Amino acid sequence: MRCDPLQIGPVRLATNLLLAPVAGYCDLAFRTVCREQGGVGLACTDLLSPQGLLRGTAASLDLAQTSAFDRPVGMQLYGSDPTIMADGAQWAVAHGAGVIDINMGCPVDKVTKKDGGSKLLTDLPRAIAIVRAVARRLDGSGVPLTCKIRLCWHDRDFAAGRACSPGLAAALADEGVAAVTVHGRTTEQKFTGSVRLEGIARVVEAVRGRIPVIGNGDVRTPDDAERMVRQTGVQGVMIGRGAFSAPWLFRDVWARLSGAGAAAAPPDLSEEGKVGVVRRYFALMRQYRDDHYAMHHIRRRISWFGKSLSGGACRPLREAVRLAETPDDVEAALQAHLTGALRAPEPVPGGPALRLPRRSVPSPVS
Ligand SMILES: Cc1cc2nc3c(=O)[nH]c(=O)nc-3n(C[C@H](O)[C@H](O)[C@H](O)COP(=O)(O)O)c2cc1C
Q1: Catalytic one among 106, 147, 164, 314?
Q2: Domain range summary for the chain, segments of one domain joined by +
């Protein structure tokens, strides 16, 4: 297998791999950590409300946070009003976006009830009106427009061969969209069931030779990525949840897809190296946001990281980080994991909670 780096309009990526937008997960700290590990061609912000950006609400500005290292970065907008989406795109370009992406795949009620996200799959005229308005606003900026879609809304349409995605992708290409990402599920599937590679392949067929298609869904290993490319013909691969436990996954996948061969594959990270990545992520969250944010997110994320840390020690580490009250507690837990001090027997039901070295056990936080 030998994939080329992806070209999105005028933007040449270093690889053909993209970090997915995943609301609440792919903040600047996580994007930075993935980029530092190598292999990331493009990373994207979580979905952003153009109204929030234009009003300057703190939540939206936090989500749009980027840095000179976080390049190129895609900023993803959701909504249903063409003019507001165009205004949001203009704001994003002025604040560092190298690619503008329109969310046409979010299945969450809060978004679809306002006619945004994957509701656009069911309303081609509106989807096209948005793309036209945004593309016109981006004209001359050198910033390409992309869209992230799903196969279609209803499972029954997909089963009957009536998925809208091939036709939609062709229409988007007609409007000057530079690339389309396809999450290979229907809206009804949300995040359950398996990804339908044959549905992604039909989108590739519909726009072949015109714009690149990026395949997305359930890529957790280099084998998964290779299968996605071989079975669908996509030019790029987007990875979301697979990177939560292994931010170094892009590096490993690119070694495979670029044809570097097994001999050139990067060595597996040591346990110390993996814990170093967790430490770096935690430090960056503190730097870019604050301790409260960093503590909240490390407690949520440690079980994902734990999946790729040495098997038996994962649960004690998870518990210790969940019980941590301060950044020092988190550091003590990570250090104890490395030294083996956490590889303790399971706590007895009703017995004392897991003990961190040098500290009293903090009470659980809600
Ligand atoms: C909690 C969660 C939040 C997500 N947020 C977004 C989002 O903001 N924008 C978007 O286009 N997709 C979003 N997605 C979908 C992912 O980008 C991706 O399409 C999906 O997770 C499948 O890819 P994966 O199996 O590699 O994770 C989200 C998915 C999850 C699970």
Answers
A1: 106
A2: 7-264, 271-339
Q: Does domain 271-339 have CATH number 1.10.1200?
A: yes
Span from the CA of 188 to the centroid of ligand 1 (angstroms): 14
Whole-prediction pTM: 0.93
pLDDT in tens, 171-225: 999 999 999 999 999 999 999 999 999 999 999 999 999 999 999 999 999 999 9
CATH class assigned to 7-264? alpha beta
Rounded to whole angstroms, how far apart are CA atoms 215 and 224?
11
**Residues paired with residue 182 on neighbouring β-strands, in sequence order:** 149, 215
